[in-house]
């Protein structure tokens, strides 16, 4: 049941006008409640029933009043207020002490007049700004709503107000910024949220409270230059219109700022503050209190120069050629916006990243949280690579700087692998026998054999090995003996051949240089010999060597020499023509 409209004279709710429907009960902050009158309640009765409670004696205790049949207490000192959770005493969430507990004010209808009364009640001259704090449910209850102060009251209990009877699961509470008379209104600046002194979220000090500068499309690099100049740096390297270094804890001070870039400090720029009357409450509600719109900057440190290349890597995947794309810029690793409507990540960008990592190219690209979101910010969006760039830094893109966790769609990639021959594991074939353990060594293997086994494959026992060692030793000796015998035979054969050849050469030389004359004809004065001597002399020759002296005989090396000449054979008988001798 919803939108119930009753005249008041109906006996049941069914007689009233209402919408009938089934609604989810997950949001239980919109149910209505009521306090009913008792039968004897008379609102015109001036008699007030009171009682004392909380004491052990009847004449002392806490005063309670009976109203509409319900007993309640009396506020003796008006409405107590305080500011909570701000980091400075003059700014924070407004809390009111009621029914023994501190509670907040529901922010609907909260304006600068209400804030002025709160600040005056706390001792400040006026309020600089009124505003909202997002989702303060779950901390303290919301006691009141719709204060209608005119700004002249001294305390909130002098303003008309409505009691907020319910505690919704999600609501906004009122907060204020009170003007501190002793605070310096000159803008001091600082950088927060980074471990490096030259980078961080820009914060300005205004009325003694640190707050941010609205970034969301309202700051440029010139604003960054001035902020860095005021901090002592030569200029800005990059300006961010989102709090890449973290959310601010204070208010959003500056609504709009315009600098030329050569100013020494931001007070010399054209600045519009949030408490300006032209900044409407509705604009503040929707745009300026959101802490994710605070601007940040990275200053150039001294004379250092920035790198022209951007390092990339793939993360979040169990394989090396796939994962979310991360870029190191400028202070750490971050991701790339992969949302579809930005058209920021495509196959061209994937090819550039894969080639920069040493792969031939990309197989596919993705836009998801498949490989996780990482721990760094979203550095870039609207990436517009052509596909032929050698480094991701060469691709046109927008610097984003969205804090981690605010985006769940990021760029991913799957890169091609270069062909590599499959390296076989030699231990897969279990080459080690008898329980031996195989250890791979490059393309080979080694076997660690158990006790009692040896060999390359642990295939032999130690006893077999000893017998084999004896046999191997005998074989070695036999081979050595055979080798010596063969060598000796070859040596002797060679020596004999050499002697024969040498003798033949000597003989040829002698025959070539000598003249041989044989004298064996008895007609030349040889002496006669007897038959025995003749037979013996038949084996002798006389040889005359011209080179030998007179009266000396040269010996034929192939004959035996004798002094007895060999007789000539007898002449055959002469026969006439007619056949007679």
Automatic annotation (TrEMBL):
<feature type="disulfide bond">
    <location>
        <begin position="6"/>
        <end position="16"/>
    </location>
</feature>
<feature type="domain" description="EGF-like">
    <location>
        <begin position="423"/>
        <end position="459"/>
    </location>
</feature>
<dbReference type="InterPro" id="IPR000742">
    <property type="entry name" value="EGF"/>
</dbReference>
<keyword id="KW-0677">Repeat</keyword>
<feature type="transmembrane region" description="Helical">
    <location>
        <begin position="476"/>
        <end position="501"/>
    </location>
</feature>
<feature type="disulfide bond">
    <location>
        <begin position="385"/>
        <end position="395"/>
    </location>
</feature>
<dbReference type="GO" id="GO:0016020">
    <property type="term" value="C:membrane"/>
</dbReference>
<keyword id="KW-0245">EGF-like domain</keyword>
<protein>
    <submittedName>
        <fullName>Uncharacterized protein</fullName>
    </submittedName>
</protein>
<feature type="domain" description="SRCR">
    <location>
        <begin position="312"/>
        <end position="416"/>
    </location>
</feature>
<keyword id="KW-0472">Membrane</keyword>
<feature type="domain" description="SRCR">
    <location>
        <begin position="81"/>
        <end position="179"/>
    </location>
</feature>
<feature type="disulfide bond">
    <location>
        <begin position="259"/>
        <end position="269"/>
    </location>
</feature>
<feature type="disulfide bond">
    <location>
        <begin position="449"/>
        <end position="458"/>
    </location>
</feature>
<keyword id="KW-0732">Signal</keyword>
<feature type="domain" description="SRCR">
    <location>
        <begin position="1"/>
        <end position="37"/>
    </location>
</feature>
<dbReference type="Pfam" id="PF00008">
    <property type="entry name" value="EGF"/>
</dbReference>
<keyword id="KW-1015">Disulfide bond</keyword>
<feature type="disulfide bond">
    <location>
        <begin position="149"/>
        <end position="159"/>
    </location>
</feature>
<keyword id="KW-0325">Glycoprotein</keyword>
<feature type="domain" description="SRCR">
    <location>
        <begin position="189"/>
        <end position="300"/>
    </location>
</feature>
<keyword id="KW-0812">Transmembrane</keyword>
<dbReference type="InterPro" id="IPR001881">
    <property type="entry name" value="EGF-like_Ca-bd_dom"/>
</dbReference>
<feature type="disulfide bond">
    <location>
        <begin position="354"/>
        <end position="415"/>
    </location>
</feature>
<feature type="domain" description="SRCR">
    <location>
        <begin position="50"/>
        <end position="77"/>
    </location>
</feature>
<keyword id="KW-1133">Transmembrane helix</keyword>
<dbReference type="Pfam" id="PF00530">
    <property type="entry name" value="SRCR"/>
</dbReference>
<dbReference type="InterPro" id="IPR001190">
    <property type="entry name" value="SRCR"/>
</dbReference>
<dbReference type="InterPro" id="IPR036772">
    <property type="entry name" value="SRCR-like_dom_sf"/>
</dbReference>
<dbReference type="GO" id="GO:0005509">
    <property type="term" value="F:calcium ion binding"/>
</dbReference>
């Amino acid at each position: 049941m919803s939108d119930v409209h009753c005249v008041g004279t109906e006996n049941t709710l069914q007689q009233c006008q209402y919408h009938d429907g089934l609604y989810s009960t997950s949001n239980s902050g919109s149910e209505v409640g009521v306090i009913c009158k008792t039968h004897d309640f008379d609102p015109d009765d001036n008699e007030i029933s009171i009682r004392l409670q909380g004491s052990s004696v009847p004449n002392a205790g806490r005063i309670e009043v009976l109203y509409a049949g319900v007993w309640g207490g009396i506020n003796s000192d008006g409405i107590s207020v305080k500011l909570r959770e701000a980091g400075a005493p003059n700014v924070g969430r407004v809390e009111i002490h009621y029914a023994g507990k501190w509670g907040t004010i529901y922010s609907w209808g909260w304006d600068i007049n209400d804030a002025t009364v709160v600040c005056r009640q706390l001792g400040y001259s006026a309020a600089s700004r009124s505003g909202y704090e997002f989702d303060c449910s779950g901390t303290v209850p919301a006691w009141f709503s719709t204060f209608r102060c005119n700004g002249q009251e001294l305390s909130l209990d002098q303003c008309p107000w409505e009691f907020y009877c319910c505690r919704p699961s999600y609501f906004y509470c009122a907060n204020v910024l009170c003007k501190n008379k002793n605070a310096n209104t000159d803008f001091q600046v600082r950088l927060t949220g980074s471990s490096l002194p030259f980078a961080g979220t820009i914060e300005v000090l205004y009325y003694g409270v640190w707050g941010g500068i609205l970034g969301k499309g309202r700051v440029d690099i010139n604003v960054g230059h001035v902020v860095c100049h005021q901090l002592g740096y030569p200029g800005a390297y990059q300006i961010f219109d989102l709090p890449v270094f973290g959310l601010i804890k204070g208010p959003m001070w500056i609504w709009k700022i315009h600098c030329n870039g050569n100013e020494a400090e931001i007070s010399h720029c054209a600045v519009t503050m949030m408490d300006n009357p032209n900044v409407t409450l509705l604009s503040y509600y929707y745009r300026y209190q959101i802490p994710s719109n605070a601007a940040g900057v990275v200053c150039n440190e001294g004379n250092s120069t920035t790198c022209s290349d951007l390092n990339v890597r793939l993360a979040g995947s169990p394989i090396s050629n796939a994962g979310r794309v991360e870029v190191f810029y400028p202070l750490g690793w971050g991701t790339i916006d992969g949302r579809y409507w930005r058209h920021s990540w495509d196959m061209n960008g994937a090819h550039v990243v894969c080639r920069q990592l040493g792969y031939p190219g990309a197989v596919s690209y993705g836009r998801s949280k498949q490989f996780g979101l990482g721990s760094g910010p979203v550095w870039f969006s609207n990436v517009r690579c052509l596909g032929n760039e050698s480094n991701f830094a060469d691709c046109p893109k927008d610097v984003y700087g969205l804090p981690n966790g605010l985006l769940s769609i990021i760029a991913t990639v799957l890169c091609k692998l270069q062909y590599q021959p499959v390296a076989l594991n030699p231990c897969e074939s279990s080459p080690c026998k008898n329980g031996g353990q195989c250890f791979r060594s490059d393309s080979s293997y080694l076997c660690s054999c158990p006790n009692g086994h040896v060999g390359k494959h642990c295939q032999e026992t130690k006893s077999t090995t000893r017998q084999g060692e004896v046999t191997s030793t005998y074989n070695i000796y036999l081979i050595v003996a055979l080798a010596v015998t063969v060598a000796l035979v070859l040596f002797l054969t060679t020596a004999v051949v050499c002697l024969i050849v040498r003798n033949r050469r000597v003989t040829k030389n002698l025959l070539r240089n000598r003249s041989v004359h044989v004298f064996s004809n008895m007609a030349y004065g040889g002496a006669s010999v007897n038959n025995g001597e003749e037979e013996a002399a038949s084996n002798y020759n006389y040889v005359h060597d011209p080179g030998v002296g007179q009266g000396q005989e040269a010996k034929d090396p192939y004959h035996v020499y004798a002094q007895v000449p060999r007789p000539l054979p007898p002449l055959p008988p002469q026969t006439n023509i007619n056949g007679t001798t």
